[in-house]
Design goal:
Strand content: 15-25%
Shape: globular
Number of helices: 13
CATH architecture of one domain: 2-Layer Sandwich
Structural class: alpha+beta
Number of strands: 21
Helix content: 25-40%
Radius of gyration: 21 Å
Distance between the termini: 28 Å
Bound molecules: flavin-adenine dinucleotide
Strand order of the largest sheet: 16-12-14-13-19-20-18-21
CATH class of one domain: Alpha Beta
Length: 438
């Protein structure tokens, strides 16, 4: 038994982790273990990858086939996106969809059906998946795709590890000419201005806004909208970029060596950070070439940045509400947070396009605005998030399970009314809390 938590460091539990890199011991483990949950790299925030018994998939980390003619990759489920990029980028390919960290596994990307800054144009990771290998509750190996075992294929995509253990995945890649992104930053004075900017820029492949959540009144929603496009060879600017157009990321990092004292991140320190961040941009708009690493993964430069929230950990709250609820819904939610006095260090707004019929009934993305917020665990925060749940529900929205550690089963049932066909073999603290197995 060892202490185990995911990225939010909440909850922290005692767990027994099973590790192998071979099929047979995994099959034996599945058959002989009453209940457990598969686990990738623990970059989900809450309790979806936690249970008294977990099966780590990090040993399954081989690339099985890279078809550069078709632009397709087959890799085992435990391989990290960061390792894939080191192989793909020098060959002129990129991940079709990537979240805000490259330290996730391929299996985790499927189980959470991850989205990136391009969902409004290109959809979730599921849009690019061709087939996958799965080990079922009986320890049986099956290959599933939209046409083969199609029902279990669909329920596995965004199924939070509750349908079986994903062993490998074959998926389509994106072709690129360079590893650089043409980045444009626009400052928005308030929410109205930001939403108009999002609308006028919706043909941009990548878009994301950073919002200063502590601003209220006429400044509510003060933000920076960040747009991006992959740069072609003739758009590179410096000699270094032209000489090494397909340079992958460096593995140099700084690290937060210990947990910060709790209380250090409070509304005053966060407000100073937000002020500096907003005024770092002097002009109302700025364009420049950025490497993909700082563009997609700005937080990855600081290893263990989750420790700045202190030992008690933090909760990430990410919801989506339909565009129709748009300005009114976001305004009410931001006002509630700003008035609550709880400081969200990060507040990130993106837009989603429609979901598809190839995603499980508990997959998160639906057409609308999605906002992600971080809150240190402290007294009163659970009550605030319960209130936000009600607002999100009233606007026809839902909360992202891979970030969740506290939602009630009643709220879950209203947000995901189709339910989910689970059996007790694959079970997480989250699926138990949400009463998914009854
Ligand atoms: C800084 C940061 C930024 C992020 N940004 C985004 C974002 O922009 N968009 C987004 O969608 N997500 C984002 N995330 C969340 C992250 O992408 C997902 O939680 C992802 O699933 C984590 O992958 P993992 O390998 O760490 O999986 P884990 O956290 O270990 O597990 C997550 C879920 O996947 C299941 N699982 C993992 N491996 C397997 C397997 N082989 N078979 C079956 N089930 C499996 C687990 O049971 C669990 O339910 C972010 C996370 C961080 C820390």
């Amino acid at each position: 038994m060892a202490k185990l938590s995911s990225w939010g460091n909440y909850p922290l539990i005692e767990a027994k982790e099973f590790y192998t890199h071979e099929f047979e011991p995994l099959s034996d483990y599945i058959q002989s273990t009453e209940t457990f949950i598969p686990r990738g790299n623990g970059r989900s925030y809450g309790d979806s990858a936690l249970n008294g018994k977990v099966a780590s998939m990090l040993g399954f980390n081989r690339i099985l086939n890279f078809d550069v003619v078709r632009g397709e990759l087959t890799a085992e489920a435990g391989v990290l996106f960061s390792d894939l990029l080191e192989v793909l980028v020098p060959k002129g390919f990129f991940l079709p969809v990537t979240p805000g960290t490259k330290f996730i596994t391929l299996g985790g990307a499927i189980a959470s059906n991850v989205h990136g800054k391009n969902h409004h144009k290109e959809g979730a990771f599921s849009n690019f998946v061709l087939e996958l290998g799965l080990m079922t509750a009986q320890g049986q190996y099956i290959i599933c795709s939209p046409t083969n075992h199609s029902d279990i294929f669909r329920q596995t995509i965004g199924g939070m590890g509750l349908t079986g253990v994903i062993l490998w995945v074959r998926f389509r890649l994106k072709k690129i000419q360079s590893s650089y992104i043409k980045q444009v930053n626009h400052k928005a004075k308030n929410l109205g201005e930001l939403l108009s900017l999002f609308e006028s820029c919706n043909s941009s492949t990548y878009s994301v806004a950073w919002i200063d959540c502590q601003k209220g009144g006429k400044d509510l929603g003060r933000s920076i909208l960040i747009l991006g496009e992959h740069a072609d060879l003739d758009e590179l600017e410096t000699t270094d970029q032209r000489n090494f157009p397909l340079k992958s990321h460096s593995n140099k990092h700084v690290s937060v060596p210990f947990h910060f004292p709790s209380g250090m991140l409070n509304r005053w320190t966060v407000s100073i950070f937000n002020h500096l961040y907003f005024h770092k941009e002097f002009q109302s708009s700025r364009s420049f070439l950025a490497h993909y690493d700082p563009f997609f993964y700005p937080l990855d430069k600081i290893l263990h940045w989750n420790r700045i929230y202190g030992k008690k950990g933090f909760l990430q709250y990410q919801f989506v509400i339909p565009f129709e609820a748009g300005a009114e819904g976001l305004e009410l939610i931001l006002q509630k947070i700003s008035a609550s006095g709880f400081a969200s260090f990060l507040a990130v707004l993106k837009t989603f396009g429609p979901s598809t019929s190839l995603e499980s009934d508990i997959s998160f993305p639906q057409k609308g605005y999605t906002l992600a917020l971080d809150f240190p665990v402290s007294s009163g925060i659970f009550e605030l998030l319960d209130e936000l749940d009600q607002l999100v529900l009233n606007f026809g929205g839902r909360v992202y399970l891979t970030k969740d550690a506290r939602m009630s089963p009643e709220t879950f049932q209203k947000m995901y009314p189709l339910g989910f066909p689970t059996q007790p073999k694959f079970s997480s603290l989250q699926s138990q809390r949400l009463k998914l197995h009854i």
